[in-house]
Specification:
Elements lengths: L4 E6 L5 H15 L2 E10 L12 H26 L7 E10 L3 H10 L3 E5 L8 H13 L4 E4 L11 E5 L4 H9 L1 H4 L4 E7 L13 H9 L4 E6 L6 H11 L4 E5 L5 H7 L2 H8 L4 E4 L1
Parallel strand pairs: 1-2, 1-4, 2-3, 4-5, 6-7, 6-9, 7-8, 9-10
Antiparallel strand pairs: 5-10
């Protein structure tokens, strides 16, 4: 398998050029088609039209969303017209309410080999970014590459840290990342506090490394103690110590509601990561 269909979403013209440059570089690296979904998102929550209220009150926000989608699409076309001749790209527009955005984003993600998104939390990010990210993971079931800094030149994914806890999510992430893992110079499988009574207690990660080696990956295993309270902090520090170019991990082992209320490894990583992260639910 190779990544031949890349999808990204844009709901504002702010910083759009830098973000498209990042996505275009990845598309050319993978020899893939880049699809840009230009969105206009109505952030108001309509509860229905009360008797006597003019319909214009409720259509103004929809018209504004439609105008935003059109302006984002036009700005994207103008920017990509100056791209290299080898880049294959397309743009479509959609106007969505925030409550229905997950349907559109999930459908687009479902037919993509890889969804490329900015970090959904932090300065300049909002509810739209969070909904798109979770929709791609949950409703689309797609691998999602989170890029922390738009416009930054991504290093080749030569050194990859793969977070492994024997979960279904971790295995899905591993399979989705195989095109990258087999081409990497080194894959470091990191296991935090493996269970003493688990199926792999005598040799943690052995079966996984064997599977990856058969694909041609160069693999080593790091077994770490839980030296910090949060798993995300351990993974992030280990990836920095390894000078990793990419972190691969499963996403949302618990429900989205529980993650939102209590926090969790996925949310913490999305909030604070400084290197690209490939996630799969």
């Amino acid at each position: 398998m190779a990544y031949k269909s890349l999808v990204t979403f844009a709901a504002t013209t702010e910083g759009l050029g830098a973000w498209l440059d990042t996505c275009a570089a990845l598309a050319e690296q993978f020899d893939a088609h880049l699809e840009i979904c230009a969105l206009g998102v109505d952030l108001t929550q309509h509860m229905g039209i009360y008797p006597g209220a003019p319909a214009a009150i409720y259509t103004e926000s929809l018209d504004a969303a439609r105008a935003t989608a059109d302006s984002v699409a036009e700005a994207a076309r103008a920017h990509l017209r100056g791209s290299t001749a080898t880049l294959r790209w397309s743009i479509d527009t959609a106007m969505q309410s925030l409550g229905a955005l997950h349907v559109h984003a999930g459908l687009k993600a479902r037919y993509a080999d890889l969804v490329v998104l900015p970090r959904p939390y932090g300065d300049g990010r909002g509810a739209t970014d969070e909904v798109i990210t979770e929709s791609a993971l949950f409703d689309g079931g797609a691998p999602v590459l989170i890029v922390p800094e738009a416009g930054a030149t991504l290093r080749p994914f030569d050194k990859i840290v793969l977070a492994w806890d024997q979960s279904d999510e971790a295995m899905h992430a591993t399979r989705a990342a195989l095109p990258l893992l087999r081409d990497a110079r080194e894959v470091n499988v990191v296991i935090i506090d493996p269970p003493v009574h688990g199926a792999e207690r005598s040799d943690p990660g052995r079966r996984l490394t064997q599977m990856l080696a058969r694909h041609g990956a160069e693999v080593e295993v790091s077994v770490l103690a839980r030296s910090l309270p949060r798993t995300s902090d351990i993974l992030r520090r280990h990836a920095i110590d390894q000078d990793a170019d990419l972190l691969v991990m499963g996403a949302y082992g618990h429900s989205r509601l529980r993650q939102a209320i209590l926090g969790g490894t996925t949310r913490a990583m999305l909030e604070e990561t400084t290197l690209p992260v490939l996630m799969v639910h």
